[in-house]
């Protein structure tokens, strides 16, 4: 028997040693014991990082939805698969059982087939966080169509770019979406996008907010009448292990989005395994990831990972601040959530608010807390640990990427001792390496380096849709026979990994390599500071100097700015050294962020370097808060 579920530290080390000594045997055992296959593989793994080419479970046949749904029906048919918590707390939550989800997926799959969608066709999903989004994802997978979910907050231009790149034949959207107190006209955005892209033949519309929309004859249809007529039975499409499952777009450094292509079998095995272990999910638990299915976190750890394990997964339509800042904690109390997975950005925003929002709710059901999207700073980690977890819940600070498909470095709860700001140890099968600027692997500890992975894992993206050369250039050209993550990391004396940020966020000041994350951590520990972002800007003597953009807490708003600047630099000096002091500090009301919560440092670098024309800044329409850019420019030096 393989160790699919790791329960203590000694077992972790045993399993890890086995997984790196003989990866093929390790993953073959897990794949054989825990999943349904229509045909077993001929070879576990074929790989060549030079091409690059990665094939897991070669020639195996399966369907991922049979593993997510059908196999659970006899034993978990009446168990809740998805809890839907609407934006408005006065609207009733929906509890969808595995039997009900199976029927809904089959109906949706049959509707897609009736619209001419088949194996290999691309379907773009532009929907809010409502059950129809999860249903549509699974319906595509059931019939072998390739789903491409676009976060329902991206602009029409961004949506059109993605539709055009993958040549989607069909779009599923809704009339609109709720986001806190706002109503967003999604169908109108789709209409604008389709004026730019002519490849889409059909638009199916979910009625969610009941607003008036335009209908284009022969293209647009309400989806509900079609679902009402559809059969609740739909046979699975038998897929090859390496058939595409989905395309998910991630920002590229060039500005053109990269359509990361994930395939079927390896992604299934790895997301299921990591969900079970990173969250220590038990049969009766209620698990909640606050991400959007428009991001990889939602794909892997709202839909596929949980359902492959027969879990109860919670989908939340709203935002943490509506109707007030107790909303997350009210949902935890209401549904007795056991595992809670969110972003450091959300934690910092909630930590700024009155503690009564947390203390007024019963959070005793929580067993595991998680963070995702960026390294969590120490102050936020302690707030999360003290006030949400009541010092009882291990925090899994998970490191992974859209490209990796699943979590690569993370504590295993109740096994790995946690350490604030550290993602800790690699999961089984993951072989990290730190590499220096001369492309040599660094074997000693207590050192920084560029983070690479030396051996393929099952859920790694296989290509960039339509551009394999870009895939090779981006991930496999910097270091021979290694996957380059683009991130830097520090490995401590016991081998724990701390992600120090993107390598292009390492700034060389007077010959010293300074990662932005540790400096930001130091600044964020100041009691008046809520959040910060550091970038470099040209300096006549140092080559580069450091520019800090700092958001203050309410308590810091009335403070003298010069005194605050001095205190911030003193804190940096004490934590890191005088070399890391900021030459310029600008106090701002917000930072330009992507809709997944990541700070767009590229824009901040342009502002710091006084390159502020529209051409310099590029497209800012896909930002969560594009207006903040002009505000920062107007108040900058």
Structure report:
By secondary structure, the protein is α/β, with parallel strands linked by helices. The protein has a domain at 515-635: GMP Synthetase, Chain A, domain 3. Helices cover 32% and strands 24% of the residues. The chain has 21 helices and 31 strands. The strands form nine sheets. A seven-stranded mixed β-sheet has the order 5-4-17-16-18-19-20, with helices on both faces. Helix 5 packs across helix 6 (131-143). The chain starts with 8 loop residues before the first helix and ends with a helix.
Provide a brief overview of the structure.
This protein has 637 residues and is an alpha/beta fold. It is 32% helix and 24% strand.
Quickly give the CATH architecture of the domain at 515-635.
2-Layer Sandwich
Percentage of residues in helical conformation = 25-40%
**Proportion of β residues?**
15-25%
Give the helix tally.
21
Low-confidence stretches: none
Biggest sheet statistics: 7 strands, mixed
For the record, the CATH class of the domain at 515-635 is: Alpha Beta
Give me the CATH fold name of the domain at 515-635: GMP Synthetase, Chain A, domain 3
Shape: globular
Rounded mean pLDDT is 93
Sheet/helix structural class? alpha/beta
The name of the CATH superfamily of the domain at 515-635 reads ANL, C-terminal domain
**Whole-angstrom Rg:** 24 Å
Topology:
Elements: H1 9-21, H2 23-34, E1 43-48, E2 53-58, E3 61-62, H3 64-68, H4 73-76, E4 80-85, E5 94-97, H5 98-114, E6 122-126, H6 131-143, E7 146-149, H7 156-166, E8 170-174, E9 177-179, E10 182-184, H8 186-196, E11 202-206, E12 220-222, H9 223-229, E13 239-240, E14 244-250, E15 258-263, H10 265-278, E16 286-289, H11 296-308, E17 312-316, H12 327-335, E18 339-342, H13 344-351, H14 356-359, E19 368-371, H15 378-388, E20 395-397, E21 432-435, E22 441-442, E23 447-453, E24 463-464, H16 468-475, E25 483-491, E26 497-502, E27 506-509, E28 512-515, H17 516-524, E29 529-539, E30 543-552, H18 561-575, E31 584-588, H19 601-608, H20 614-617, H21 627-635
Parallel strand pairs: 4-17, 6-7, 6-8, 8-11, 11-12, 16-17, 16-18, 18-19, 19-20, 30-31
Antiparallel strand pairs: 1-2, 3-13, 4-5, 9-10, 14-15, 15-24, 21-22, 21-23, 23-25, 25-26, 27-28, 29-30
């Amino acid at each position: 028997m393989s160790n699919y579920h790791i329960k203590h530290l000694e077992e972790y080390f045993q399993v890890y040693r086995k997984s790196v000594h003989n990866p093929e045997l390790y993953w073959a055992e897990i794949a054989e014991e825990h999943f349904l296959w229509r045909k077993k593989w001929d070879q576990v793994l074929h790989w060549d990082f030079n091409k690059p080419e990665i094939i897991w479970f070669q020639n195996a046949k399966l369907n991922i939805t049979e593993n997510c749904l059908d196999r659970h029906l006899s034993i978990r048919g009446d168990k809740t698969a998805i809890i839907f918590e609407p934006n408005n707390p006065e609207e009733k939550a929906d509890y969808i059982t595995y039997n009900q989800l199976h029927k809904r997926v089959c109906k949706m799959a049959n509707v897609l087939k009736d619209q001419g969608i088949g194996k290999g066709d691309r379907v773009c999903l532009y929907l809010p966080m409502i059950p129809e989004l999860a249903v549509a994802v699974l319906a595509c997978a059931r019939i072998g169509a390739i789903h491409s979910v676009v976060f329902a907050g991206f602009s029409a231009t961004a949506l059109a770019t993605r539709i055009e790149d993958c040549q989607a034949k069909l779009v599923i959207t809704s009339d609109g979406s709720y986001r806190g107190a706002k109503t967003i006209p999604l169908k109108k955005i789709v209409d604008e996008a389709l004026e730019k892209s002519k490849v889409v033949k059909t638009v199916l519309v979910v009625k969610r907010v009941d607003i008036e929309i335009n209908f284009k004859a022969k293209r647009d249809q309400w989806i509900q009448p079609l679902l009402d007529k559809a059969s609740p039975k739909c046979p699975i499409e038998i897929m090859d292990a390496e058939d595409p499952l989905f395309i998910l777009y991630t920002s590229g450094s060039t500005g053109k989005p990269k359509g990361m292509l994930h395939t079927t079998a390896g992604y299934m095995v790895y997301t299921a395994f990591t969900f079970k272990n990173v969250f220590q999910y038990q049969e009766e638990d209620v698990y909640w990831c606050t991400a959007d299915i428009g991001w990889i976190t939602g794909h892997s750890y709202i839909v596929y990972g949980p359902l492959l394990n027969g879990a109860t997964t919670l989908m939340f339509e709203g935002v943490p601040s509506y109707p007030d800042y107790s909303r997350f904690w009210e949902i935890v109390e209401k549904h007795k959530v056991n595992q809670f997975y969110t972003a450091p950005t959300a934690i910092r925003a909630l930590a700024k608010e009155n503690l009564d929002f947390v203390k007024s709710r019963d959070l005793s059901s929580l067993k595991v807390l998680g963070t995702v999207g960026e390294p969590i700073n120490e102050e936020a980690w302690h707030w999360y640990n003290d006030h949400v977890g009541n010092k009882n819940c291990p925090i899994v600070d998970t490191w992974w990427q859209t490209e990796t498909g699943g979590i690569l470095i993370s504590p295993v709860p109740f096994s790995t001792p946690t350490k604030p700001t550290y993602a800790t140890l690699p999961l089984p099968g993951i072989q990290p390496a730190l590499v220096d600027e001369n492309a040599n692997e660094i074997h000693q500890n207590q050192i920084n380096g560029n983070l690479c992975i030396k051996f393929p894992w099952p859920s790694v993206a296989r290509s960039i849709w339509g551009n394999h050369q870009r895939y090779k250039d981006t991930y496999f050209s910097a270091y021979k026979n290694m996957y380059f993550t683009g991130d830097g990391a520090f490995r401590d004396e016991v081998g724990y990994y701390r992600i120090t940020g993107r390598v292009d966020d390492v700034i060389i000041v007077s010959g010293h390599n300074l990662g932005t994350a540790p400096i930001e951590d130091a600044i964020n520990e100041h009691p008046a500071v809520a959040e910060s972002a550091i970038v470099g800007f040209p300096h006549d003597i140092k080559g580069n100097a450091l520019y800090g953009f700092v958001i203050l807490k309410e308590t810091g708003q009335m403070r003298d700015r010069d005194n605050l600047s001095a205190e911030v630099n003193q804190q940096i000096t004490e934590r890191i050294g005088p070399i890391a002091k900021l030459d310029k500090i600008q106090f701002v009301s917000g930072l330009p962020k992507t809709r997944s919560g990541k700070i767009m440092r590229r824009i901040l670098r342009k502002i710091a370097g006084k390159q502020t024309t529209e051409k310099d800044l590029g497209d800012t329409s896909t930002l969560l808060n594009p207006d903040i850019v002009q505000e920062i420019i107007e108040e900058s030096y």
